[in-house]
Design brief:
single chain, mainly alpha, Growth Hormone, Chain: A, globular, disordered N terminus, disordered C terminus, MFS_dom, MFS_sugar_transport-like
């Protein structure tokens, strides 16, 4: 029976890895802008942007996602997760080409905006599809790996901007910009062969197709396997329960105590993607390094490359082991470590600003790596995966649309304000993020339940109970008494 095989022997749809690479584009774009700020050819072509102008350049990528995330929800719900991913990546490909061959700053920002529009759609469907087709043993790992793939893009972009320093003329920056096309084109091709979500298929009344998908990828084709039958029962029961309650709308997030708690957690996690101090380092590493005396383009691009590789290794390791350690411990350790690191970075930056002592400036660099090490163990692999886990199927794609829109709205404001604040108050701006990190530690401690080693349906229900295990909503209590939702905890699905 599939419940007793080793997790390394569980078959993984090859297309899952292609869907994972959707995050490649986001990571590539983030690192690319940071690398461009160290490239003389890009600075010359676009007339050395700083402050508010640089903030507008950065924000152009995020603004469209505020709205296209909800378009992604509509497409994902009506046409399926696969077609949403394919359409979004076609849009991203067009944006990459416009961005590469831009002849004006308006055209360049327009290309970034088109890319951002596609990314807003794909971020709704891709993580959901991964969670819904992955084997229970691999669901935590594959879900956590989604965000980690951003660092593959970031590392690749950092290397290409380093190479671009030695390419003459405008192609010094156009060359690394053109290479970002590789990711979306690969996803378009491979996603055609990706299975559709069995949960979406069941919701559309296509139970036989859903059973085939579960059997093929969870039980080596055995439609009668106990795990497959249990999953079919769980999914069908969960969808039936949600159908009995009512047709889902975005207002559902306010209807029950459990959903209101989900909404608060969703908003907090969405904002955490770039409001914990990481955004300022990711997008404005060059100004930060210049503020502590590191000004050579080669040094800046190499540090950018090293940071991307460091992030990839740490985040990848955390993604593999997050289900053993648990979500809550990783979140709390991560925030505490980032808080301490930011205090040190602020102190060293202040010391360099007042004394111009070169050693103090150089000492900032390792603490940037330490800070990201703590960030990577939780806030790279878990926010998207945890958000998908805690959402019932009926509001899952809507939850991801709201997550994406909230994250993008926060990121747009953040990226516009960061260069202005850095230019105006320099190292003092770090105090804002120290306060935010302190708030997050408190919020996570009181608001985040543990979901490790739970099935998708079980994890989606943890917010419907209080700390003593009593249902917060009468409908939940009624369903429990009827035994509609079966329990998988009697089966050993944990990795061995």
């Amino acid at each position: 029976m599939t419940a007793n095989i080793k997790w390394t022997e569980v078959p993984i749809p090859s297309a899952v890895w292609a869907v994972e690479t959707d995050k490649f584009v986001k990571g590539y774009q983030a690192s690319l802008l940071g690398g461009f700020q160290a490239m003389p050819s890009w600075q010359k072509y676009f007339k050395n942007p700083t402050g508010a102008l640089l903030g507008i350049y950065a924000a152009s990528f995020f603004i469209p996602s505020i709205f296209t995330a909800f378009i992604g929800d509509i497409v994902s719900t009506k046409m399926g997760r696969r077609w949403c991913i394919i359409i979004a990546n076609i849009i991203i490909t067009i944006g990459c080409l416009v961005n590469t061959f831009a002849t004006s700053i308006g055209m360049w920002c327009g290309g970034r905006a088109i890319i951002g529009a596609g990314v807003g759609m794909v971020k709704v469907a891709a993580p959901v599809l991964i969670q819904e087709i992955a084997h229970p043993r691999l669901r935590p790992i594959l879900g956590s790996c989604y965000q980690t793939f951003a660092y593959i893009g970031a590392f690749f972009a950092a290397l290409m901007t380093f190479v671009g320093l030695y390419v003459p003329g405008d192609w010094g920056w156009r060359f690394p910009s053109l290479l970002q096309v590789i990711g979306p084109v690969a996803v378009i091709v491979v996603t055609f062969f990706c299975p559709e979500s069995p949960r979406w298929l069941i919701k559309k009344g296509r139970e036989e197709e859903a059973l085939d998908v579960l059997a093929k990828f969870h039980a080596n084709g055995d439609r009668e396997d106990a795990l497959v039958q249990l999953e079919m029962q769980q999914i069908s029961a969960a969808i039936e329960r949600e159908f009995v309650q009512q047709k889902s709308t975005i207002v559902d997030f306010l209807r029950t105590p459990g959903n209101r708690r989900r909404l608060a957690t969703l908003v907090a996690l969405a904002c955490s993607l770039n409001w914990m101090g990481n955004g300022i380092i990711t997008y404005y590493l060059s100004p930060i390094l210049k503020s502590v005396g590191v000004t050579a383009p080669v040094q800046i691009t190499l540090i950018n490359s090293g940071l991307a590789l460091w992030n990839l290794v740490l985040a990848g390791t955390a993604a593999v082991y997050c289900d053993k350690v648990g979500r809550r411990p990783l979140f709390l350790i991560s925030v505490a470590g980032m808080l301490c690191s930011y205090v040190v970075v602020m102190a060293l930056s202040a010391g360099f600003s007042n004394t111009k002592h070169h050693a103090l400036g150089i000492a900032v660099i390792p603490f940037l790596f330490i800070y990201f090490g703590f960030y990577d163990i939780a806030f790279t692999p878990l926010p998207v995966a945890y958000t998908v886990e805690i959402m019932p199927f009926s509001i899952r794609s809507k939850g991801m649309a709201l997550f994406t829109s909230t994250a993008t709205l926060g990121n747009t404001f953040n990226q516009f304000v960061n260069p202005i604040a850095l230019k105006a108050i320099a190292w003092r701006y770090y105090a804002v993020y120290i306060a935010i990190l302190g708030f997050y530690f408190w919020f996570i401690y009181f608001m985040f339940p543990e979901t490790k080693r739970l099935s998708a349906e079980e994890a989606s229900r943890v917010f419907d109970y209080d700390r003593k295990g009593f249902p917060l909503d009468r409908m939940t209590d009624d369903v429990e008494q009827r035994g509609v939702i079966p329990d998988t905890r009697s089966m050993d699905l944990s990795p061995r």
